[in-house]
Design goal:
about 210 residues, mainly beta, six-stranded antiparallel β-sheet, about 15% helix, globular
Length: about 210
Amino acid sequence: MIFRKLLPVVACALSISSFAQIRTGVYFSSDKQYNEIIEDVGNPLSGSPVMIVKSFVPNFGSYIWFLNESKSKSPAYLDEKPKDLHAGIFLEDHGGLIPQITFKDFAGGLSQPKYLINFCEVGDANKDGFPEFYLTYFEESDGLDAKPLKVIVYTNLGEKTFTKSKITGWIPFQEEDQYREEKDPNFKLLPKAISLKAEKILKDAKNGIN
């Protein structure tokens, strides 16, 4: 099986919503609020945002999640215009931004990471009043090796800083190979409700690729 195409970005797949008392808005470049956010706080990462998520969390403040793409610094052969990925969660503070946690992955050679925007979500699965951020992306590459599909979960479970957890589904290239999953040590420590949600996102994203 060869995976050359990923799911198209569908703006309506994610819409303004609320999780308990958390108020979350999802914005794309065609939205007025997208430009207003950049005018207010700037763009803190390399490249341009393909999606901006803004979550107001009672008693904690307003968090902005940027998912950016930039022109790759290295040549890649699977895409005519290879892109590097840059993402970050920031806390708004008096018109500025305080970094909470960031993410990077780079194209190069036969590798091209791509956001699966339809499966990048914000939720409060364990109902503790603070959101989790689920970043989903696929590492497209050429060759016979399995291709990684990753869901990274950013949580702040009563700690001072965000924690990164990851589950990876290895999509087989050859029909005789078997699909498998790997969970990093932090993922195994997540509350059950959060890990189940991440596993469901991974399953849905895998089905979308297939």
